Structures are given as structure tokens and as C-alpha cells.
Amino acid sequence: MLEPTLDWSSLAEGRVFPAVPIVLDEASIDAYLEATGESHPLYARQAGGGLAPPFFTTMVRFVKASLGGRWPSGTIQLDHRVSLLRALRRGESLTLDARCGRIDSLKGQPRFEILSTLRDGSGAVAGTQSSASLWAGPPPAPALQAPGSTASTASTVRNSAAPCADGHGPADASAALGPLTDIFPMARVRAFGEVARALDPIHVDTAFARGTRFGVNIVQGRLVMTLLSRLLLQHHGSRWLNGGHLDVRFVRPVRVGEPISAWAAPVAGDPRAFRVWCENCRHERVIDGEGGIGP
């Protein structure tokens, strides 16, 4: 069943959506950690509350809530940017203020940007994020969509379905961090979909996925992205949670059940900056970008 979709006119450039309350409650945090595979002593339940995974607040469920619970089913996410101004704590109450940024087109396909700000109870900014996606809801006005145009940002899974070779390795042998390798089977894709409200049929409906250009189910991009957070936390601990940032592009789809490895290579001259990427076992990058840690 397709998710309820928006009318294109709902995404007017500059539109501000209602603020959404976010409670970093224990049950939701634990469900998120189990689905993503994230595990670290800093995230453990403690008498003082413990810390919360920063990407918990990037889940599409919160922006969907701003948009009345609706989202364009089948939308292709192109990129994601996250800036962490401070570590989040279990039990905190926050708000997410979302607004529509730039609206334009990419190779004839409508593209829209969602910008959001995370605020604590005092109104102070705890983090910011933005993402750009290709529209996949009902066809918008002809001015934004060229006749017969198709999205070309994501390669088809059918063309990259060769068997995996043994072992992983970075294209750049000087990479300092990695690999952190994981596999996202359907059980975890569904579990993440439940907690993130990201149950688009391309992720969880086998029959539906067979009829798409991908041919198989693909993993939510924001679930794959958590590998990079895990890698940076593993090596830099609280420096990642306090002041870290990530700016990535989603280059290729990830098939459910295929191994994915995260890497981070230091940038010359800046000890806090990294070139980051995730790759499949054919050494094809599926996520590419840059990141950094706090002081």
C-alpha cells in the first residue's frame, strides 16, 4: 500500500511547517538502536539518562508529522546534511522546526529541499539538518517536469547485482578509519521503517519492488547513513556527538541484505575533517561526502 502523498502545492518555497515535538524517550531510542545496529557505552541507559544517538532526530517521521503525516511515496533522497551543536540526552524534550527550501528541477524532475532546526526547551539550537529529494508524488505542473523525463541520480540495482567479492577495501589505501561493515536484512529494514515511519513499499514490499526500476527492495538511505555515525563515534566518542557534522550524497541504492562498509579518510591539514563514504562489496560508493568532529 502506497503512503498518502502530498499535493505538490504543499511544498511552496519558503513555507514554514508547524513545529513538531520530539521526546527522546527510552523505548523509541532502544528500538532505533536495535534497528540501526548502533551500540556504544555512551548510549546505554544510565541513572543520569545517558546520551541519545544524534541521527534519531533525522528520521523522516518528524518531518512527516509537520506535513500532516503525508510524504511523496517513492521519493528519491539525493543528499543529507547534519550539524550537531551538542550531544542529545535520553529523556530530553525537543522541537523540530521544518521549512521548505529551494525548489527547482534536476534533469526535468522536480527537486525539493527540506530544512530543519532542532531546539531544546529553552529555544536554543541543538542541531540543524537539510535534505534534498526528487518528487515522486502526483505529477506537478508541466513547468517543473519535462515530458518523458526520468531521474538519473540513482543507478538501477539490476545493473549492480553481481556477486560480492571477498573482502572490502577503500579506493584510497591511506584511509585511516574503517571498514565498519554491516548488512541490513529485511527484518532490520522493517524495524527501522516502523520506528522511522519509513515503510515505503520500495523498502518492504517485495512484489511492489519487482515492478520498479530497481527490481528488488532497497534499504532506506537514512538507515545506511547511520554506519558513518557509528564509525565516527567508535573512533572519536563525544567529539563526534558534540559538534560533529556530516554532508553526504546518496549515490547508489543499497539492496536489502548486501554488505556495506563505511570509511573515513582524514583531510590533509585539518585533523577534524574527513572524507567519508560507504561502499558495497563491489567497491561501488553508495554514499559519498565529508564529515567532521567537534573540538
Summarize the structure.
By secondary structure, the chain is an alpha+beta fold. The chain has one domain: Thiol Ester Dehydrase, Chain A (Roll).
Topology:
Blueprint: E1 20-23, H1 26-36, E2 51-52, H2 60-66, E3 76-84, E4 88-89, E5 93-106, E6 109-119, E7 125-134, E8 177-183, H3 186-196, H4 201-204, H5 206-210, H6 221-236, H7 238-241, E9 245-250, E10 259-267, E11 270-280, E12 285-292
Antiparallel strand pairs: 1-5, 2-4, 3-7, 3-9, 5-6, 6-7, 8-10, 9-12, 10-11, 11-12
Description of the molecule:
With 295 residues, the protein is of the alpha+beta class. It has a single domain, classed as Thiol Ester Dehydrase, Chain A (Roll), CATH 3.10.129.10. Helices cover 20% and strands 32% of the residues. The chain has seven helices and twelve strands. The protein has helices at 26-36, 60-66, 186-196, 201-204, 206-210, 221-236, 238-241, and strands at 20-23, 51-52, 76-84, 88-89, 93-106, 109-119, 125-134, 177-183, 245-250, 259-267, 270-280, 285-292. The protein has a ten-stranded antiparallel beta sheet with strand order 1-5-6-7-3-9-12-11-10-8. Residues 145-162 have low confidence and may be disordered.
